[in-house]
Design brief:
Layout lengths: L20 H8 L3 E5 L2 E4 L1 H20 L3 E2 L5 E3 H7 L1 H4 L6 E3 L5 E4 L4 H11 L8 E10 L14 E11 L2 H22 L4 E4 L9 E8 L5 E6 L5 E3 L20 E4 L6 H8 L7 E8 L2 E8 L6 H7 L5 E3 L2 H8 L16 E5 L8 E4 L5 E6 L12 E2 L17 E16 L1 H6 L2 E3 L5 E3 L1 E8 H12 L16 E5 L5 H16 L4 E3 L6 H11 L3 E5 L7 E6 L4 E6 H15 L1
Parallel strand pairs: 3-7, 15-17, 17-20, 25-26, 25-27
Antiparallel strand pairs: 1-2, 4-6, 5-6, 7-8, 8-24, 9-10, 10-21, 11-12, 11-21, 13-19, 14-15, 14-16, 18-19, 21-24, 22-23, 27-28, 28-29
């Protein structure tokens, strides 16, 4: 393709609202343009990258017998009302009415749509397991879209859904999909970690994230420095073995603490470590008040609390609500004499405390020498891991310490179980002729987000650097002066030879200065650049490998074979 015919509006200055490297470079290189906050046009170069990512996905999905199809982006609200998510998904859900005053949404994901389809079409276990998928725009009304394609209100996603008659079928499909994702990301050429993830609004019992380490990532990955353990910080676990104390129980007493508003203040007053104190944090979980106790040196992890309770919605409880129900405000809360309507959860570390201090549920007062069972009845089933792991602590396997890094979520796979099939009547007759709920999985890849994730990892000071497998073009031919007959001849000859090998070639035929051409070539980041300059008459050109920024002078007769080798080495 001739560059003079390509819509590639490059910029010389970084837009002021572009905060991260990938956003800056995708704008500067003419890959994307904003239409509204969190919504972008994908220009020709970006669309070529997207097409190649999608093709890799399609090939790997075909390898595991997944069926590609397409469902509407606009969905009737009844589907989501049937599953219960219409009321619980939150403000990110686009809702609107049509001219008949019927409620609709823009699909942020499509579990309900596919479950209803399977409920209508599949009646026997003999048709299962079955996996379907699509590649389609999704819509979420993000409160604060930012970082270019990393957090948007409209994005392109590959979403797949599996349906099985039994747990074994789900496990097999989940494992096949995990391997397919590994192949996809390996072929794309992005660095990633497969980590324990949070199922979040999708629900389900098991999930795994694929996260690309990058400074611009909004997620924190916690991984062991000695083993392969890795998890999203929301799900990360540290190593802990219960230690039951044999210390003599001291007498419970109450003290005045009018000026101690934090755990640190209280620790300083009593001259004891924060780990010996109990911290109580309150949440509204599906509308009910829940008090969670940890040791004072840890933070409560809301995701773990929500997952433990299998709740649809969780938020920090307003202080006014806490005061109305418990009788005290933040800073004076504790587990002793909580009202019956408050659910008490206790972190496993806090459950081992003896003679500990916590709020007395009276403003400005704390109890000393609290002990479980004597002063607070604590059922075993209310004890769990409710804390946020800390960097440097032992990882859950006990064989390494946790290290934190930032990451971008690029894929996520979930075992959903029967949450949606049960709600929407997706059942089949099993081999014994009995009705059984289909067991589901859900699997997503952020297709458009991958453009930014790759740019964050691969770009350098000169511009973008695309892996050969997904680059917009394979080779960039840059004649220094198209008015020079020899340079024009060699450029055209190279284009013909390379295209005959099945390569995609971009020829910079513009009447621009050499410096402009070279700067644009580095900016858009094609894997191979061939400069046709003063030695064209001798059939000698310069080949540049963009990833390493190395230049090799070679004869025309060597170019085709050399370029093929260089490209294959980058795939």
């Amino acid at each position: 393709m001739k560059q003079s015919k390509l819509l590639m509006p490059t910029l010389r200055e970084v837009p002021a609202d572009a905060e991260v490297k990938s956003h800056q470079l995708l704008l500067k290189a003419g890959f994307i343009r904003p239409v509204a906050a969190g919504m972008f046009s994908y220009l020709p170069l970006a669309k070529r990258v997207l097409n190649k990512i999608e093709q890799i996905i399609r090939e790997e999905m075909a390898n595991i017998d997944a069926n590609e199809m397409l469902v509407p982006e606009v969905l009737p609200a009844e589907l989501w009302q049937k599953s219960g998510r219409y009321a619980t998904y939150g403000p990110d859900l686009y809702k609107f009415k049509n001219r008949q005053d019927r409620d609709f949404i823009l699909g942020p994901t499509h579990e309900e749509t596919y479950t209803q389809l399977m409920a209508d079409e599949i009646k026997s276990y003999k048709k299962l397991p079955l996996t379907v998928y699509q590649i389609q725009p999704k819509f979420r009304d993000e409160n604060r879209p930012r970082f270019g394609l990393l957090r948007t209100r409209e994005f392109i996603m590959k979403d797949a859904y599996s349906f099985s008659a039994d747990q074994e079928g789900l496990d097999q499909t989940f494992h096949a999909m995990e391997n397919a994702y590994i192949n996809i990301f390996d072929r794309i050429g992005i660095s990633y970690r497969a980590i324990v993830g949070d199922a979040g609004a999708m629900g389900g019992s098991d999930s795994k994230e694929f996260s690309a380490p990058a400074a611009a990532g909004e997620d924190t990955i916690a991984y062991s420095d000695s083993t392969d353990y890795a998890a999203n910080l929301e799900m990360a676990k540290d190593f802990y073995v219960s230690k039951k104390s044999t210390a003599e129980l001291k007498t419970l007493k109450i003290i005045d603490t009018p000026n101690e508003k934090t755990i640190e203040d209280l620790a300083a007053l009593l001259a004891i470590p924060t780990a010996s104190l109990a911290k109580t944090i309150t949440f509204l979980v599906d509308g009910q008040l829940v008090a969670v106790v940890t040791t004072g040196d840890f933070e409560v992890n809301p995701v773990k609390v929500q997952n433990f309770l299998h709740a649809d919605a969780l938020e920090i409880a307003p202080e006014a609500t806490v005061r109305e129900i418990i009788g005290a405000g933040f800073g004076s809360l504790g587990p002793v004499k909580l009202p019956d309507k408050v659910t008490l959860l206790v972190d496993e570390r806090a459950a081992d405390l003896v003679n500990f201090t916590a709020g007395a549920n009276q403003d400005g007062k704390h109890y000393l020498n609290i002990n479980w069972q004597r002063d607070v009845l604590l059922p075993e089933e209310n004890i769990g891991d409710f804390r946020t792991a800390r960097e440097g602590d032992l990882s859950v396997d006990g064989k390494g310490h946790l290290i934190f890094t930032k990451g971008i979520e690029i894929g996520h796979i979930f075992k959903l179980g029967t949450r949606y099939s049960k709600a929407m009547g997706a059942q089949v007759l099993d081999e014994n002729g009995r009705q059984t709920d289909m067991i589901m999985g859900s699997y997503g890849i952020g297709v458009s987000r991958l453009l930014s994730a790759i740019a964050e990892q691969k770009a350098d000071d000169l511009g973008l650097v695309w892996p050969a497998s997904i680059a917009p073009f394979d080779v960039h031919i840059v004649p220094v002066n198209m008015k020079d007959d020899e340079q024009s001849r060699v450029a055209n000859q190279l284009e013909t030879l390379l295209m005959a090998q099945g390569l995609e070639v971009l020829v910079d035929d513009r009447k621009e200065r050499a410096g402009v051409k070279f700067a644009d070539a580095d900016l858009i980041g094609l894997p191979i650049r061939i400069t046709v300059g003063k030695k064209a008459g001798e059939d000698i050109v310069e080949v540049k490998v963009r990833a390493s920024n190395t230049n090799i002078e070679m004869r025309m007769s060597e170019v085709v074979d050399s370029v093929s080798v260089l490209l294959n080495g980058d795939k």
